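In the design runs reported in the main text, the only information available to the sequence generator was the tokenized backbone. The following block is the verbatim input for one such run; it is reproduced so that readers can re-run the procedure and compare outputs position by position.
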């Protein structure tokens, strides 16, 4: 079932999303060659706690794996999502996806972005640009009376017309009282299908775009999802609210 949020619930989600956006900005500003991914995790965790909120991913359980051990996900190059922060140091030329979730007052917010570490190749630059633009193409379709796969179709069409591929096995999702709620929001699909979108729905739209094949694998650590072909991948995500018929991005600051 897809929850329609009350005004009060929306206020709480809005607050969590604001903290998510501020945390992402802070972490992104600290991305540079030489910084370790665990340092980024600590910066995020401290900022979230200083807002009397909790990092939503810490302790998150997923079938088949142990509880997620960190506050954010940091996924480098061929890592698509769910990279676990570690002593690994960022290097010039890499691209890095930062994913942040926040829980406050019983409600979640969720967003991600990908940024360059120092100077990157034109190919990686294009991958970042196309993935971010794909997110906005999807968001445009998230309006009342459209269907979920109108969002999916718009993302897939934009990405594939630029020669990249969308990950099939991971999706966007409803967000609110739970980090992952219905509906599932795939990054590929047929126009005019899927559940109908309505005012008061809050959903996370999150294209994961691969430079090469869409095929993925889960690495040895049980969490990090990588491309099978080893080529880079990018990821952008916003939590949005459908209000007055139109999408409103909540993870902005
Ligand atoms: N933004 C991701 C998602 O919505 C982050 C989940 S990471 C996890 O699925 F650790 F919580 F699994
Ligand atoms: Co998400």
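Verbatim output:
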């Amino acid at each position: 079932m897809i929850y329609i949020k009350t005004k009060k619930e929306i206020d709480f989600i809005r607050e969590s999303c604001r903290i998510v956006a501020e945390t992402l900005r802070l972490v992104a500003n600290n991305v540079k060659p030489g910084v370790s991914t665990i340092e980024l995790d600590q910066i995020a965790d401290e900022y979230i706690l200083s807002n009397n909120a909790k990092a939503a991913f810490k302790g998150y359980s997923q079938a088949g794996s142990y509880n997620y051990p960190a506050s954010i996900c940091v996924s480098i190059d061929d890592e698509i999502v769910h990279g676990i922060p570690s002593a690994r140091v960022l290097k010039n030329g890499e691209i890095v996806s930062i994913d942040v979730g926040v829980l406050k007052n019983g409600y979640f917010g969720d967003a991600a972005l990908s940024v360059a570490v120092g100077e990157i190749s034109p190919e990686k630059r294009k991958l970042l640009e196309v993935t971010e633009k794909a997110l906005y193409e999807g968001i445009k379709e998230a309006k009342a009376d459209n269907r979920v796969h109108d969002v999916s179709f718009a993302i897939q069409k934009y990405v594939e017309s630029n020669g990249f591929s969308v990950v099939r096995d991971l999706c966007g999702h409803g967000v609110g009282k739970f980090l992952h709620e219905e509906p599932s929001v795939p990054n590929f699909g047929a126009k005019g299908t899927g559940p109908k979108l309505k005012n008061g729905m809050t959903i996370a739209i999150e294209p994961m775009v691969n430079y090469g094949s869409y095929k993925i694998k889960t690495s040895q650590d049980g969490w990090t999802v990588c491309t099978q072909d080893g080529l880079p991948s990018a990821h952008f995500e916003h939590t949005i609210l459908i209000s007055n018929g139109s999408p409103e991005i909540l993870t902005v600051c």
